[in-house]
Amino acid sequence: MEETLASPKMAEIDLINNKPTFLEFYAEWCEVCKEMAPQVSAFKDEYEKDVNFVFLNVDNQKWGNYIDKFAVNGIPQVNLFDKKGNLISTFIGKQDEIQIRESINNLEKEEKPYEEIINSEFSTIQENKNNEVSPRSHG
User: Fold this and answer.
1) Do 80 and 86 contact (CB within 8 A), yes or no?
2) pLDDT band at 130 (very low <50, low <70, confident <90, very high)
3) pTM of the model
């Protein structure tokens, strides 16, 4: 998977260009993300004429404001927005293809209540602790 945005500013534009948006937070090391990648790719192929597809790698610090804004602490996390940029659905963890497809199809309908679907199979985002010093690291 690759990031499809050049800058965080572009993500805002994608949310207001009058098309629904499929936003996925992922990481290269996330096994569940890798498992779902073929399914997500098939969705993109099928819906990209009518839906924006945006992929943000949680390990890239430039997306930190989005990670905070959408309270991402388990990945993959997929947020679906209607064409006005309203958050309609949040999926956390491994998801059933039918469930996501239904939600994508419902993005075109007006007045849909927000829903959050969490599966217990997800990866917890890990903080980068490479720069931390522990008492034992100095022998």
Assistant:
1) no
2) very low
3) 0.73
CB 89 within 8 A of CB 117: yes
The pLDDT tens digits for 49-86 are 999 999 999 999 999 999 999 999 899 999 999 888 88
How high is the pLDDT of residue 24? 96
Which of 30, 36, 54, 80 is flagged as catalytic? 30
Can 89 be counted among the known catalytic residues? no
Q: Phi, psi (5° rounding) for residue 26?
A: -150, 175
How many domains does one find in the chain?
1
Q: Is 33 a catalytic residue?
A: yes
CATH code, domain carrying 38: 3.40.30.10
